[in-house]
Amino acid sequence: MRMTKVQGKAPTLKRAAVAIVLFTSILIVLPSLLVLLFSGTEEGTGSATEPVSEPDTSEEEESGEPDSEVVVPVYRDAQDTVEEVELEAYVAGVVSAEMPSDFEMEALKAQALVARTFIVQQMEHNSDDVPGDAIVSDTTDHQVYQSAEEWEGGAEERDKINAAVEATAGEIVTYDDSPITASFFSTSNGYTENAEDYWETSLPYLQSVESPWDEDSPRYENTARYSVAEVEQQLGVTIPEDADFTTNKETTEGERVESVTIGEESFHGREIREALDLDSSDFEWQREGNEIVINTRGWGHGVGMSQYGADGMAKEGRDYRDIINHYYQDVDISADHQHMEAFVYHQEEEEQDS
């Protein structure tokens, strides 16, 4: 009986041992089967075999481009809204608004480089009082900007502008490793102006240079007429009957009016230009009866790159680097993205704080 009992337990123990082995095997094999079964659905979004917290950045390191998209908050004046625009799209919008699309490709490239440099410097300093969270407006207070939807030209011209922007993508103009004040204007009087002679702030890379190409501009010369009363009101002076407007006038290195005296009042050339909305501070004026006739040469403040000068240089076979180095002295054209990366980091911090 005892033997029978022992024989009766032996098959039971064997079945138990087999069951334990099978159960253990299932515990070991099942997770692996599940991984094999579902790993294909994770492809392209980070599978369990790839470290999600350490994405592959080799392509970014080779290109030198920032990890995140640089977005420019632009105040749209007409709509009274703030629009977030990707950096290169913003540059294309400035080029399309600021320079004629029929200009030479190298001139458009120079304009793209200047526009990008302007906004990168604005990103760093952002000292202007712009509504909302914007850092720049879409008016002449900064740079005129229009979106692709607002473009009224043809598709071919727009493609040309986009090609100019893409050809200089990521490049900025620097002086001592910092973005320059990338000022530009339409038409010179044959020379650009020293920064200190117009803004009273000296910048070593914004000094007067010759720009003979501008004579082809339709606004190289212009004539404006004002009543004597209008000029007196705008300048806050009384103009004597025998006033000689050709005397008591001093000029700058760029051959614009530095100062002029009317009666007992002295004015800077910029003051006259802005008060009377003249094309340029290079002007000659005279009285004809009850009118003041003013002849100007050039269009704009005259500091930095002349757009018609850039087009003239391009027509002579100069490339955009030649243009930049002519109008801005001792500068570098750099594809260094450290300034843009710093702005992206600052933007991300602000978003996290909010």
Structure description:
This protein has two domains: 66-188 and 302-353, no CATH class; 221-297, no CATH class. The protein has eleven helices and 14 strands. The protein has helices spanning 2-38, 58-63, 87-98, 105-125, 155-167, 195-199, 228-235, 269-276, 307-315, 320-327, 338-353, and strands spanning 71-76, 81-86, 136-137, 172-175, 178-179, 184-185, 221-227, 249-251, 257-262, 265-268, 283-288, 291-297, 305-306, 332-334. The protein has a three-stranded mixed beta sheet with strand order 2-1-3. The longest helix has 37 residues, at 2-38. The N and C termini lie far apart (84 Å). This is Stage II sporulation protein D. Keywords: Membrane, Transmembrane, Transmembrane helix. Residues 76-175 form the Sporulation stage II protein D amidase enhancer LytB N-terminal domain.
- Count of strand segments: 14
Q: Which residue ranges are poorly predicted, with pLDDT under 50 across at least 5 consecutive positions?
A: 1-67
Order of helices and strands: HHEEHHEHEEEHEHEEEHEEEHHEH
User: What share of the residues does DSSP label as strand, in percent?
Assistant: 15-25%
